[in-house]
Fold this protein.
Amino acid sequence: MSVNKDFFRPGRDFNYDFQAAGEPPMGWPEADRLPESLVPTHCCFCGVQCGMYLRLSEGRVTGVEPRDFPHNRGSLCPKGVVAYQQVNHPDRLTHPLIRRGRGPGTAGRLERATWDEALDYVVGRWRDLQATHGRDAVAVYSGSSMTNEKCYLMGKFARVGLGTRHIDYNGRLCMSSAAVAYAKAFGLDRALLPMTDIPLTDCLLVVGSNIAETFPIAMIWLWRARDNGARLIVLDPRETATARTADLWLPVRPGTDIAVLNAMLRQIIHDGLIDEPYIDGRTVGWEAVRAAVEPYTPQEAERIAGVPAERVVAAARLYGRAPRSLILHARGLEHSTHGVNGCLACVNLALARGQVGKPGSGTMMLTGQGNGQGGREVGQKANQLPGYRHIDIPEHRQYIADVWGIPVEELPWEGAAATEMVGLMAAGQIKSALIICSNLMVSLPENAVVQRALQSLDPLVVMDFFMSETAELADVVLPGSVWCEDEGTTTNMEGRVVKINLAAEPPGEARRDWEIICDLSRRLGRGQHFPYRSARAIWDELRQASRGGVSDYFGITWEKIDAQGGVFWPCPAEDHPGTPRLFAERFAHPDGRARFFPVEHAPPAEEPGGDYPFRLTTGRVVYHYLSGNQTRRLGFLNGQAPEPWVEIHPQAAARLGIQNHDRVRVRTPRGAMEVQALVTPTIRPDALFIPFHYGHEQAVNQLTNPAVDPTVKIPEYKVCAATVERLPSPPAPLPEGEGRRPSPPAPLPRGEGRPRVNFTAANAPKMFPYATGESRSPAEEEGKVY
Amino acid sequence: MIRRELPAATVAVLAAAVLVLLISLGSRGFKDFDSALVGYAVAVIFATAAIIYRYSLWITRPPTWRYFKAGWTNFLSWRNFRRYTSLIPVAWWHDIFAQTFILKRGLQRWVMHMSIFWGVVISLLITLPLTFGWIRFTLVPPDSYLFWFFGLPLFQFPIEAGTGFAFFHALDFTALLLILGVAIALWRRTTEVGLLTTQRFGFDLVPLVLLLAIAVTGLALTASSLWWGGRFYWFISLTHQVVVVGWLLSIPFGKFFHIVERPASIGVTLYQTINQEVEHYGEQPQTGRCRCCGQELPSPQFVDDLKVTLVDLHQNYDLGDDRGWLQDYCPTCKRVLRGQAYSQLMGKRFL
Amino acid sequence: MPVKTLFVDPSRCIGCRACEAACRECDSHKGESMVMVDFVDRATSVATQPTVCMHCEDPVAPCAQVCPVMAILITPDGVVQQAETSRCIACRNCVYACPFGVPKMDAEARLMKKCNLCYDRTSRGLQPWCAQACPTQALWYGDYEEFVNQRRGRAVRHTVFGAQEVRTRVCHVLPEEQSRLDVVALLKEAQLAAAEANLGFAPREEAWVL
């Protein structure tokens, strides 16, 4: 893997280190008592949602036991093993906080408050703001690492409780481009296959995903496929643990995957490997694609992407000749100003080979967040209602209004996407926001702007269970619950709905998130729409709300989930077993055919140039999850990777006089940060890599480019122009990050040279506000983009 | 293995003979010997022979012998005298009397072990001399006792005073201490999952049960004479004797052998400190270096002794050429060497 | 009953250290990890290698043989156990004698600790935690027959360190043609290859262009 603790603390002798850091709250000796019971549940981290048991002793969660669930077979990654230590963690927020003493020139401080005080204050402010500035002055920014029930409730709360159009969620930053691509191409957005299908394939093409580090448990199935003889091709600027033993590694320049994918498709066409009967019978739009890829010769791909032409040809032949082939793609492809097109390029390949709709073949997006799949189906997206219904379609609006018992006119229209909200906040159009399950100060690009936007809110309300970097800026902090303090369902990256069970009570005065939302609704005078007494009641309403929609959960009961080891949606009736494999006979478009979309390579929004010769790319490390707000508090995980680092190739390092372990400053047009250098040939010489899980001055999103994809507004995290320089003297030790605001980047000697900027004000994607119904381009209209 | 066993047996017989001699001396030619305790005395003599036999075998194992010799060499070296004069008492305190290392394993474990340790040690200090006839009390009219040890009158104390009470009930107190320790031990062994699954009946549980039986039957003797008017006394006394003899004879085997072994840690402490490689009680370490990464390694003497020990055991980790011995590398580098060899074999292949 | 043991295949290892995290959850040494995952050489590769106790059979447990107080006991089925708590005097012979670099030393508690092959779990028919958690089967638990049926490669029990050959209870997984892992011979090969590369004999990876 990329690093572990011996990079940060070199010279430590492992034989004297038991890695005991990160004790569960009750202490190890207590954790060694006989467990009284085992609660079957799933891990809270990442889209794989591994099955696990939590050990309970005297009502406390004391540990974890393996659970033989169909997709993880009892395996757990290091995050899953220590996830249980979040329960009763000493850092947990146990009572509401209100910022007092805020005034001109002073930030005030967060002080303890009662629930009544906090909620009444929030509701009072919201009423005032909405009365003066309109309903849309209050926004809800939600997340996907929580149960379907909560995600559903957030959408309903925004639209019914607050009546605001501005509700969006952090999945926008995650895989939203893949979601749009699948919706456009197939008419339905879900991974096409269960993970257990992976071993059936003959060739795996992994595009922009370090599965070994991001979804270690999925490696069970990848390695099993290779045991069965499957070939592995990896497109990645880094020689990751996934790519290390691959049959073919295509070290693609960050942000240029489409050139390689198109060149592969061209080669497949020229080799006569396309599946013409399939194309004729099940797809539309092939000719345009065939014409579009023709200019992408292997040499052209080499010129654009820096991958040797022979390797592109070899990859095309390995992939094209495999009877069954499967493309796995993730953030490396999707975090881009042309993320949707990147995914469509993958889909084009698979469709041209006639792979989609067969067992063990096709394409598979690897959704990242714990409930990244469910979170985007149940109606917390700016343009979407539960069951993947579209907020612009009158019948869909009517159905949901009926389920919710409100007049359809009251249902707001499409709001701003998460990335657009920041602009609206900064512009003063959004005056207050409720943020749940998100840590914007770590997760959004160019976080100096984000900080200004958040600080302009009054009040900024954050619901979280740890004091995140975003919560530190909040005016009101509401202590919520971790995953196993509540029950409900999540939908994992395969589309498998699984059941999270309750194992503990929230600590102190902390409450379950849905109870807080219901309480807020009551205080807003909308309590009649939120009468829930249990998570199950929300689930039953969600089933009803999704009924007949694209993602139909109606037939999924908690009992069925337990009985079947998870249920794949769509599951329209209670006697329906669910749908593990999609599109066996027809696609979800009305004509039953898949769509080809011709895609062209477009350069990233910012390319190296002038004083910025490198492409900076960001990514994950196996020990941390998303913004690290949870995993950085778990001793074992944080001990392995306590701070970010920058990976740099020895050739580049040699030119810059940088050696391993040197402190260096990485600079982009937006800012600079100091990190330790890891000099290693496992990255392209023209690329730099920094992991993104860290906050304050360790956040790589001080540097990243806020440019977004025109359709879906996903930011381009994976490439921006950057430079790196060795720091002359050893830096002062980094102080602990408790309660501090990020300091503004130190003034730098800025050179004259600027990177090449491909997005200007003139051609940048249109951002909110849209006129109602205007949000979709003709192509989107046609593709039914959600 | 006659080479080690015959001398060991000889030493054991000699030790037993010396003990018999001492008993006869200390009890003034068996005049002070309490014939009711003859069973215990015989068992102790047999146990002594067995322990010494086992001890001799143990001490002559190659690794032990090396430490044994090095320990005594260090001890008898004038150069080191000034250092170990303070070190040895400190080591005895930490390793044997206060057992601070067990405190690092857990407070509960420390309380448990201290209770058992002192319960057993004090009991033995009282009962062994009694059994051997080295102690006796004579009445000095009107109300005092005279305490004799090894045939010599030592001091006089009043019958009714606390001292008397303490003397006659000392074994009851140690029995209670022992019961406390054993109770904690048994509680741990029945509630902690780790212990529950790894403990062995004969090795871990039987010793505790033996100790408990000794303490309980001992207390029952007192109870019988004080409150039950001597009823069951004969039966209890016989049971007590049986479990005590059983315990004595079990010392050379299984768990209790650690009583004999433990003082070796003093020798090891001495060895490690004298060779300046481990920090004990504030001494500054001075170390060797790993051949590959330059990380700390124990002293050259330690590494050399270890190599010779391995050779004694017919193992030879000489890597040939200029690579030195495997033991010249730190454990991490040993793993990495193996990893590099494997990488050379596999490259970037996937098996 | 066939002997179940661990099979170690570093080529599958992705270095996620799930085994290290999981090992801490073992009831018999709660909170302490006995597995080690090392980078082979991070300066050139992300390759990693997991190390568990190999439970040497011949010579039987060098760690136990060099122990002056006989604290390291071996079960009848060949599992070399961690030091008996009552006996260990923390002399560290085992730590430095072990040819695989396995035993760990708790210097303060004066106790050597190492992998017991998860006796608490295997005695109940479960897998050791490390193999249970491992997502890649780089650590895999089963008997030889199961291995042959389910896995590729050859399970090898012999590791050679120069003059010394060690037969272990835990197996390395090597390519079919290999019957032993000869550490020194392979290191020599690696040295030769590196020397050749430096002299320009061997083809090198095409040079990167910045």
Q: What stands out?
A: Helices of chain C lie at 18-23, 62-65, 93-97, 119-122, 129-133, 144-150, 183-199. Residues 90 and 111 of chain C are 6 Å apart (CA to CA). The radius of gyration of chain C is 19 Å. The beta strands of chain C are 4-8, 36-39, 48-51, 56-58, 104-106, 111-113, 139-143, 154-161, 164-174, 181-182.
